[in-house]
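Hi L., both proteins are below.
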Amino acid sequence: MHTDTGEQGAEVMREQLGHVLELAQRPAVFIQVVDPECVAGLAGAFMIAKLPNDQPDVVSSDSPTQAHITTDHDIVTSIWQRYEAIRLWAYPERVSLKMIEEARRAWT
């Protein structure tokens, strides 16, 4: 039996982009596409956790081999600055969602 993996790949991509668009309907979810020329966004994945009761923020930043989790003020500040730099390169949410919808249609 022969299957067309190109069509299967397109279907998977359409489903994934559709899922992203569905997630964007949730009240606490905000999605912004970042311009591909954003150098700050190429430095690797990270997460910032803002904790309650005046606890220090926690960041997790990825390296090729492991995640680094810390509350070190200098590192947390650096990650927040990187986050803000990336946000400066991000398209507004309405534009981002339109871009995602156009990309989804292109996979038909």
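That was the first. Here is the second:
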Amino acid sequence: MSRPLIAILRGITPPEAVPVATRLVSAGIDRIEVPLNSPDALDSITAMVDALGDSALIGAGTVLTRDEVRDVKAAGGQIIVSPNADTDVIRETRAQGMLSFPGVFSPTECFAALEAGATGLKLFPASVGGLGLLKALVPVLPKGTDIYAVGGIDGPDFAAWLAAGAKGFGLGSSLYAPGDTDEQVYLKALSIVRYYGAAIS
């Protein structure tokens, strides 16, 4: 079962990439994003794709330009996540056959991103907009729009956000922080998966 949970491994280094990603997949989280402002991010993505490409959806976050989209594609990435809704980046992502999750916060950004071909929307920073923002957006967006809540969200928050219309979550510091061992990440991932299971049951 592939859960709509994206691990955001900001700050991870290439030597850590495969051990951490392997433990995430074994815990039940198989969607993994390496922000491009991490050290040697493309090397980490390549290593994870080589090791886990058949069992995980791996890509990059904090993608801001079309050139970066092409770099991630060359590294084997399949998913592009951005903090903003740059329609050029979205269109390039889709032209490269990759999944696009741009950051949005307003109806204008949501509709512009969808028009450009976004696969889903990253509501960011979700904790700032809060449940009220999500509840206001859902009724006006096209039915079936996948909205991922990202930024300040942790396992105990899942049930309320899913009830408000979120499809999934991006998880950063609640799942991985620089310096964490792969065992620490594994234990946090198990907890996140349990919270998600409880929220959808």
